[in-house]
Amino acid sequence: MIQSDNKSGEGLRTSMKQLITRWTWPDWVIFGIRIVWWITQVIGLCMNQTNIPMPLWAAIALSFVPFSIPFLLQQFHLRWYLISEIVLSGGFVVFLNIYSLSSVWGFIPIGFVIGILSINKSYRWTAILSIGVVPFIVCSVTGKDWTEILFNVMLNHGIVFALGYAFQLSILAHSQGRIIREQNRILEQHVVQIEQMTLIEERNRLSKELHDTIGHTLTSIIMGMESVRPAVTGEYSERLDALLHSSRNGLDEVRKHLHQMSMPSLHASFTSSLQKLVNKFQDTTGVEVKFRTLGDEYSVPNQIKLALYRCLQEALTNAARHGQASSIQVHLHFENNQLRLQIQDNGKGTEQLLPGFGLSTMKERMLELSGQMSVHSHLDEGTVVLCTVPRHKHLQSKIRIVLVDDQKLIVDSLKMILDDQEDLQVVGTAENGKAAIDLCEQAHPDVILMDVRMPEMDGIEALQVIKDKWPDLRVIIMSTFSEVEQAVTSLQNGAVGYLLKSIQPKELIETIRLIHMGGTSITQEIAEQVFEEMKQQRLRLMEGGGSEGTNPYGLTKRELDILEQLYQGLRYKTIAANMILSEGTIRNYVSILYSKLGVNNRDDAINKAKEEGLLGKASEFNVGHIRT
Predict the structure, then answer these.
(1) Does residue 210 contact residue 258 with C-beta atoms inside 8 Å?
(2) Mind listing the pLDDT tens digit for each residue in 42-57?
(3) Which is more confidently placed, 622 or 372?
(4) I need a surface site. Which of 26, 173, 387, 521 has the fewest CB within 10 A?
(5) How far apart are CA 16 and CA 597, in angstroms?
(6) What angle do CA 29, 34, 40 make, to 5 degrees?
(7) By C-alpha distance, which of 57, 53, 82 is closest to 70?
(8) Which positions does the record annotate as the modified residue 4-aspartylphosphate (predicted)?
(9) Does residue 298 contact residue 422 with C-beta atoms inside 8 Å?
């Protein structure tokens, strides 16, 4: 029993301590006025104890009732506090005036306090009781006349009540001003961060544009000159060497300037970038932010870094500005299949999220990366923002590439282009088909770029051997000239791409990524001729007694899926999100689809699909995988 009482006492002391720590300076002013009022009443009792109709100790104990009970009720329910203050404190003043132990002004301090706490419109009734009823009863028991009651006592009580009311208005104005200043500081900090990130994004975009234009153009020129080197003799050979040297020096200069142009934060550790943002936000706003990472950190592309960085900015600003949070927890999860950013605050929360909170922008950023953004918020329970980005295969590890060509300079140029990409890695080179087969045994590549005409074993022969040994290995045939028969033979022997060596470096890089993700590609110059030739071969096969296929255009299941979604009227961005692919990849697939169907736009493709009965039959087709 004693232990239970001790626990109850400790719980009460803890509650009181928490209560006092939450007090603001107006609360201390009110407490000070009430305690001064109570002390004054006790002094009055002590000085006039001969007139008290009870022992002094009992009178002092009685005076403690109107002081303590309203004080306790004030912490839990304002309405009951006001009622108890008027009834108990007012009744005690009446009691004192009956025995001439106090003046008619004994209720004045309490009236001031009630005026302070009656700012809410629903509590305006307290003015009638504090200004009229209590002073009237006090004056009545002391025998004051009507004139003095109305023009002296009630008027002064009304002035004091109005002063208390005005005092509370000034407190509210000061508090709102402080909140506005705090929010302005948060917004200023947010604007500065937005400007910095916008500058980073713009510099990154310009760097990428210059890399994809000037850098790739110079690389294409170098490759072109290398491809014609065998045909150049005499003094022109020396000139060609000089041009190549100049082009390579220019390319090195471009790369050096692009590297200097890139902001250091883009190349820093992702966690350190977020930690720096969190620290700066904490120092600026005073809001406690705890940052924690879970799992083993891995490389994150700049595009994902920027998107999650921006989302964290928005979430922190919302938590401090709208949620008025005092503590925020940020968790970054490095998971096998996805990257997850969680921001949880202890703010006031909300039942209805407003679009002005930047949520739509955050959601769009996640959708662009095939990710998701969700918000969970409840009134007085804080808010949780969750951003997830899938970790695609090409982000987990680099695409391993083998280059096969008997022209060393072509191989060196290609290697220079591909190794410049974060997600591509040339793991070996070979000068003929036989060496390529041996290299595959050792290097285990994901993609092979192989020339056709080579000594010892040409590309077509090597392709047949490679596909027999490693059916899943993706082989791209590269040729100097566009030959339809050669392209058809390559595709029929298992190649997933047929490209010309004159292809733009940017297009080559995107093609490798597309093929690695399961697609295929064929150069546009001969695409229609290749498909027409393969279609004629199928027709000849059917006429000769071969089995009739249900898909005469050679569409793959993925192309049929995309065709279905085009028929449903979906946009490229939505289709990309549904299939967890980039929008650029979807555009490539659609371009291939149009080429195979022999159409130029969506409407024609849908009409032809209806005529040929291709809609609704994606699961029925099991065809070869040729892409353009």
Answers:
(1) yes
(2) 888 888 877 788 888 8
(3) 372
(4) 173
(5) 79
(6) 125
(7) 82
(8) 451
(9) no
Which has the minimum average pLDDT: 48-52, 372-376, 566-570?
Answer: 48-52
Structure tokens at 210: 């210059």
Exposure pattern of 164-178 as b/e (b: 16+ CB <10 Å)?
A: bbebbeebeeeeeee
- Judge whether 394 and 423 are in contact, CB under 8 Å: yes
What's the token pair of residue 86? 């008027």
Topology of domain 268-391, per CATH? Heat Shock Protein 90 (3.30.565)
What is the total residue count of the chain? 628
The class (CATH top level) of 397-546 is alpha beta
- Count CB neighbours of 621 within 10 A: 17
Amino acid in the structure at residue 397: S
Place of tokens 């170098």: 222
Output the pTM of the full model: 0.38
Helix (H, G, I), strand (E, B) or coil at 427: strand
Overall fold of domain 549-628: Arc Repressor Mutant, subunit A (1.10.10)
Per-residue pLDDT tens over the stretch 311-321: 888 888 788 77
Q: What is the pLDDT of residues 466-522, one digit of tens each?
A: 888 888 788 999 887 667 777 777 877 788 888 887 777 778 888 888 888 777 777
